[in-house]
Automatic annotation (TrEMBL):
It comes from the Eukaryota. Transmembrane segments: none annotated. InterPro entries: DUF1996. Residues 43-294 form the DUF1996 domain. It comes from Parachaetomium inaequale. This is DUF1996 domain-containing protein. The keyword Signal applies. Residues 1-19 form the signal peptide.
Length: 350
């Protein structure tokens, strides 16, 4: 529903490399890269304390990440000594499923990732925080302990209102269509994609104003009932139950499927060979988890300052080289780099 914001987000992709001047006329939105902290089977939001969690994730952000992260005691800001994201005040954690290629002989290889247009680092996740466009509409940054989840790791059918989708990327950046509208699909693309596969996960922008989390990690937040959360005439209406406008968090990952584009190595029946780490080859199970961990009021300041891109006068930033140094060892020792007989935690697909 955020066509306009995303149209402009795509324009930003051409000109907002770290330190690069931001083109004029682009509405405010933080857009920055977070490299991998670790790729492993942990999920402190959905299965806290479970070692391993049911499926493999790519995890980025502050290095206090661990299997439990009890909201009553775990302080992401105090307990982290670094972040894999550009802004050093952002000790939050973000995670998603990871993509695998399945060869004809039935073995699997994790699909590498590319830094997003204009950004650097080792791939990982591009994170957006988008405030309302109008300078006179405010947005309320998240409170300590805030968490939320988008998507359903057990889904086997398309969602009604897609917030998780794939784009088959052309060779050059594609400005033509926006967030989860055609040609984006909830299924994984059926044909080889010369520019890789982009996965987008868009979080809700309305909050109940009370709960930092709920048992399903979803009910305390809601999507606008009309349009996006912007103040323009086309949108900005939060439901009465969730009246507080929060920044729009969006996660974007570019999967470099190009080493696997030769149809000679695709399944003989012509189906596509990519599989989410949930063991899902349809594509409905990609999901995004968010555990808020910005230092003090830094996110609020950045939203109020209407910063754009990955340079912000009210935030500290580090180079991509520095952010790539922030990593964690795996707690669950899975081979996530070699060819494997099955995706960690999964049975081989039939
Ligand atoms: C996670 O970190 C917290 C504090 O940083 C610690 O108390 C807890 O024991 C850790 N849990 C695990 C499973 O390592
Ligand atoms: C399976 O196929 C892949 C891709 O062709 C190849 O790299 C791998 O070595 C093969 N594994 C086995 C066990 O044959
Ligand atoms: C907010 O800004 C818009 C356009 O810039 C203007 O039309 C509107 O009156 C302003 N609202 C308030 C409450 O200042």
């Amino acid at each position: 529903m955020q066509w306009k914001a995303l149209a402009l987000a795509l324009l930003v992709e051409h000109g907002s490399g770290q330190g690069a001047p931001v083109p004029s006329g682009i509405p405010p939105m933080l857009r920055f890269q977070c490299s991998h902290l670790v790729i492993e089977r942990l999920d402190p939001l959905v299965t806290p304390g479970s070692i391993p969690s049911p499926h493999l994730h790519q995890i980025v952000g502050g290095n206090s990440f661990n299997a439990t992260m009890d909201p009553a005691t775990h302080d992401l800001v105090k307990d982290s000594t670094c972040t894999s994201c550009t802004f050093t005040e952002d000790l939050s954690n973000y995670w998603t499923a990871v993509m695998y290629f399945r060869a004809r002989n039935g073995t699997y290889k994790r699909v590498p990732q590319l830094p997003n247009l204009g950004l650097g680092g080792n791939g990982g996740i591009t994170v957006y925080y988008i405030p309302p466009h109008s300078p006179n509409v405010s947005v309320t940054a998240f409170k300590p302990g805030f968490r939320m989840l988008v998507g359903d790791a057990a889904s086997n059918k398309p969602g009604q209102d897609p917030k998780v989708c794939h784009r088959c990327m052309p060779k050059e950046g594609d400005n033509s269509n926006l967030n989860c509208a055609a040609p984006d699909t909830q299924t994984l693309p059926a044909e080889p994609c010369v520019g890789g596969i982009r996965s987008v996960i868009t979080f809700p922008t309305c909050w109940d104003g009370v709960n930092t989390d709920t048992p399903d990690h979803k009910s305390h937040v809601a999507y606008p009932i009309k349009g996006n959360h912007d103040s323009t005439p086309d949108g900005g209406v939060c439901p009465d139950t969730h009246p507080v406008k929060i920044p729009q968090v969006m996660l974007e990952t570019i999967w470099d499927t190009t080493p696997f584009n030769d149809k000679e190595i695709w399944p003989e029946d012509g189906s596509q060979p990519f599989v989410w780490s949930t063991n899902d080859k349809d594509g409905y199970t990609q999901h995004g988890d968010y555990v808020f961990g910005w230092k003090d009021d830094s996110l609020q300041r950045a939203m109020d300052a209407r910063c754009t891109g990955d340079v912000c006068s009210v935030l500290q930033h580090q180079t991509f080289e520095e952010s790539m140094k922030c990593t964690l060892p795996q707690t669950v020792k899975d081979d996530v780099d070699g060819w494997v007989a099955s995706i960690p935690g999964q049975s081989p697909l039939a």
